[in-house]
Amino acid sequence: MVNSQASGVPPAPRSCAGCGGKIADRFLLFSMERYWHTRCLKCSCCQAQLGDIGTTCYSKGGMILCRSDYIKLFGACCACGQSIPANEMVMRAQGNVYHIKCFSCATCRNRLIPGDRFHYINGTIFCEHDKPGTALHNSHLAPLQSSSVLTDQKVC
Q: What is the CA radius of gyration of the chain?
């Protein structure tokens, strides 16, 4: 994100990617190959004006994010704890985020793909064939929930 100030000769008015209006302000922002009014470049989650809180913003899944919300949404894989790059697709289960390669059954280690059914019990993923038996189910765990794997979605 670059904060530009007009100097000397006024440049031709630019259109704001946020509101579509002409930018005649003294300062403007350039981010994601587009120009923005400083008031229009906002985090998709918290609505913070990104020019006011730093010089970096993040873009993923059609969202523009501040650093804090990016880390909350895509920061670290729940399985391996490693960071997840902004350009990498993720898998989600019960609000947790995983690298695609880490989204696998705890028993057989087979990787699950979108459309596979799975059981999510106390933060552990099991494929449809390896769901825990009734002894585990009766030991104060939440009831089994089968879900379909979902790819990256907006969760703010």
A: 22
- Give the strands of the sheet with 124-127, arranged side by side: 124-127, 117-121, 146-148
Q: In this structure, what DSSP letter does residue 84 have?
A: -
Q: What residues pair up with 151 in beta bridges, in sequence order?
A: 91
Exposed / middle / buried, residue 107 (Cβ in 10 Å: 0-12, 13-18, 19+): middle
d(CA 63, CA 154): 8
Whole-structure pTM value? 0.49
Instruction: Give the C-alpha separation, 51 to 53, whole Å.
Output: 6
Q: State how beta strands 58-60 and 63-65 pair.
A: antiparallel
Q: Dump pLDDT digits (tens) for 39-91.
A: 999 999 899 999 888 778 888 778 898 888 887 777 788 888 888 887 788 89
Element (H, E) at 67: helix 67-74
Q: Which of 2-16, 22-36, 50-64, 68-82 has the highest mean pLDDT?
A: 22-36
Residue with tokens 């005649």: 24
Question: What is the enclosing helix (H) or strand (E) of 3?
Answer: strand 2-5
